[in-house]
Design brief:
Layout (H helix, E strand, L loop, with lengths): L13 H16 L6 H8 L3 H7 L3 H26 L14 H10 L8 H9 L6 H17 L8 H20 L3 H20 L8
Helix pairs in contact: 1-2, 1-4, 4-7, 5-8, 5-9, 6-7, 7-8, 8-9
């Protein structure tokens, strides 16, 4: 499933057309490499209309990150659910479905890594609020991961470690071809298995 494919833009209001277009261009080619004129042309709006909705490129970048957060988190929760995570909550082995979800994402032909890591590297503190949105995205990702785990004292520590493992796998997959992406998934799976093994025996069924 292409989690980034956008529907027919003509059916959307101008602001949505701009944002959906910017989402795909920023993610595929980068924020700095994508100029406002390109977004305007690709979304089929006038400059007046664009600036009415987004007074500056920074405003568009923040809107892109907010939109991307909601879109990716919806996919993430759905991907975990499709692999039976909700039925396995309370069993420490539910953590292992993270590797399967990442394998699905890495196989997507438009996968270009984590938009939030990419954005912080690209614009950093130069776009006010961008780093805050990225941090909140990662915090919520870890919260979802924690929700897979049994209620044990080390629950959040394990979720944080798993989140770092996910980010590491994303970066590794982004750096190479399909073979490297598969290797990244294998690395992540081994880390997750080690984290599961660190849980009390009663938390693993």
């Amino acid at each position: 499933m292409d989690i980034y494919a956008i529907p027919d833009l003509a059916a959307f209001p101008a602001r949505d057309r701009i944002l959906l277009t910017a989402h795909d261009l920023f993610y595929a080619d980068g924020i700095r490499a994508t100029g406002i004129d390109r977004v305007i042309a690709a979304s089929g709006v006038t400059k007046v209309t664009f600036y009415r909705h987004f007074p500056s490129k920074d405003d568009l970048v923040r809107a892109f990150l907010d939109h991307r957060h909601g879109r990716w988190m919806a996919w993430f929760v759905d991907a975990l659910g499709r692999r039976g995570a909700q039925q396995r909550i309370g069993d420490g082995r539910a953590l292992l479905v993270l590797a399967d979800a990442m394998a699905e994402w890495f196989a997507d032909p438009v996968f270009r890594g984590c938009a939030f890591i990419n954005s912080v590297v690209e614009v950093g503190a130069s776009v006010a609020g961008a780093a805050d949105i990225a941090r909140e995205h990662k915090r919520e990702m870890v919260e979802v991961i924690a929700g897979l785990l049994p209620d044990v004292p080390q629950r959040m520590a394990i979720a944080q470690a798993a989140g770092l493992g996910v980010d590491g796998a994303i970066i590794k997959a982004q750096m190479g071809d399909a073979a490297l992406a598969r290797e990244a998934v294998g690395d992540l799976r081994r880390l997750l298995e080690a984290l599961v093994a660190s849980l009390p025996a009663a938390a693993i069924r």
